[in-house]
Amino acid sequence: MCLSVEASKSVNYVMLPAPSSFFQHLPQKKSNRIINFKSTRLHTNSFLDSFSLTFILHFAAVNSTEKSMDLSDVSGIQLATSPPPRTAVDYNSSFEESPAKRVKFSHELTKSFDEKLSQTVTLICRNNEEVFVERTLLSHYSTYFRVLFSNEFRDSQASSHRIRLITASDFHLLITIPRAFEQGIKPNINVQKAVELLEPAAYLQINIALEHISDIICANLSHENIIKIFRLALLYHTPLALRVWRAMIRQFQTMFATNVYLTLKENELIGLLTDKHLNLKSEDERTVVVNWIKHNSPLQSDRIVQFAQRNFARRPQPDSTKYEVIRNRQPIGAVVSFGGWASRGVAQKIEVFNTRCERWQTCNFNYDVPNIRRAYNGIELVDDKLVVFGGFNGIQHFQTTTVFDLETKKWKSGANMHDKRCYVTGTKAKDSHGRHLIYACGGMNGVSRLKTAEVYDPQTDRWTEIANMAHMRSDGAVVSIDNKVIAIGGFDGRNIHLGGECYDSIVDKWYPLASNMRTRRTGCTAVPIMDHVCMVLGGFNGVKRLDTAELYDMREGVWHSVSVMHTARSNFSACTMDYSVYVAGGFDGQSTTKDSERLDLRARKWQALPDLAEAKSALRMISLTDHPFLDELFHISDDDDVVTRW
What we know:
Blueprint: E1 2-4, E2 10-15, E3 34-36, E4 52-53, E5 91-96, H1 99-117, E6 120-124, E7 130-134, H2 135-141, H3 143-149, E8 160-162, H4 168-182, H5 191-204, H6 207-219, H7 226-236, H8 238-250, H9 252-257, H10 266-273, H11 285-295, H12 302-312, E9 333-338, E10 341-342, E11 345-346, E12 350-354, E13 359-363, E14 378-382, E15 385-389, E16 401-405, E17 410-414, E18 425-430, E19 436-441, E20 453-457, E21 462-466, E22 477-481, E23 484-488, E24 500-504, E25 509-512, E26 525-528, E27 533-537, E28 549-553, E29 558-561, E30 573-577, E31 580-584, E32 596-600, E33 605-609, E34 620-625, H13 630-634
Parallel strand pairs: 3-7, 6-8
Antiparallel strand pairs: 1-2, 1-4, 2-5, 6-7, 9-12, 9-34, 10-11, 12-13, 14-15, 15-16, 16-17, 18-19, 19-20, 20-21, 22-23, 23-24, 24-25, 26-27, 27-28, 28-29, 30-31, 31-32, 32-33
Helix pairs in contact: 2-3, 4-6, 5-6, 5-7, 7-8
């Protein structure tokens, strides 16, 4: 709905009939409760710009009756992707007038609008509680009241309005939320109250409150309440419904494990199964459909039976290599391999591991990549920025930093490190302000091994030197646990280290760990397992390549042995994802290897995985979970053969 006055020959009025069913002018009546809002008058200039008033009404047709809602009665998943329905017919008219008349009319309109907003209005809430509040305040925070007060509806000039769906105290809370944000305060509301306020916030179109309520609800989603919340959001706020839908896609594997998905409606389940981002293992797709059909009556499952028969028969590759699936899907997470040293020098391929079809795929990284192809470098993902630093390309030892922004998909050169660093190890940790910083420790500058260390701030693009380590370490391992940086193992040019040291950023000092590892290690890799626990894997002890791994618990300061790997290796890479440790590449004592494997932390067992596309050592891997950039890595098509309109 829009009313505009512009400096042109034609002035268009787009108006809606007065929503008399929503605004009821009631006779004066004594109430049990009165709330008076005293607020600073707002300037009407904030609503007027170049003699133009533009007001948008999103959900004028929200049901305002007081009857309770049964979430089980909500149907029609189509609303999740459809625009809000139009609430009335637009009436258009245009006429010609002189510029002088237009200016006079504009001044009259501004004066009339000022007079309207200077008045106080009485809101009669649930249980006949009265709230006295200035029209200026209501117009500032609520699109609903702004449209009402700025137009010539039947109830626009009424001194009182009935808002039946909200109590006076809840209305006070809704108005308090945007006022608190203006003062830099984030209101603390529990999820139950947020759900109660969703309907009135959407009805009155208090957008700041609506966004805050949506954030609270999304932060408290679980597999137990997500379906009910989704259906509730469909009624009142489509953007929230879309957020909950995406969360349902991410949590569907848990919904399957707990049988919560059996309460989905047929069109909801079909909608989920057609989504390429659905987080569901390939081996479980047939079970999902069969169990849902058994749980529901034949009349409720006729469409999904036809849907399953048609799409399971297609057996799309590669996801259907082992199991029947509806369609190829994009994994919820991925392990990405960069660089490394192959038989012909620096590896050229970027590979990504597809957890659905259990295989490595070559990634067509179609972006201009400056100097990322290197080995023995450091790489970290911080705040949607992939930071590559140091390394070696067979000729040059790098001290440069290259940053790839996953959002803009552009590369840029960052600040140089203070030292050239090959065989460098790095990790990320939070500082006292909650910012992620990247630590680069040790390495080799082409002449000597290093004990120096430095820290990189991606926000300021600056490397800062920190205290030196107690020992020179190249080809060691660095990991962050408890927001503390731990350097382990490595080689100083003569000796392979058995111990490690921990960096305290507050006092800028390195301290030795409470105990040494069970085995000397260089060319090893470390990954965080829990808040207080890290794991060191593989390496070289001076005699042979190692297949062993050890756990270190910061709380007790003791190293513990864990299951051995299938392949002994050094100068490889490892990362964690979904309660598993992924290991790939390296040198096995005879040659570089393409072997990869995975440790299930819950089962404490290693599982052999398909080989990399090429054998390489000194590669670097990162894990990426539930991120939009996965679309760029996998390039899963929309698969038009699958029913996508539901």
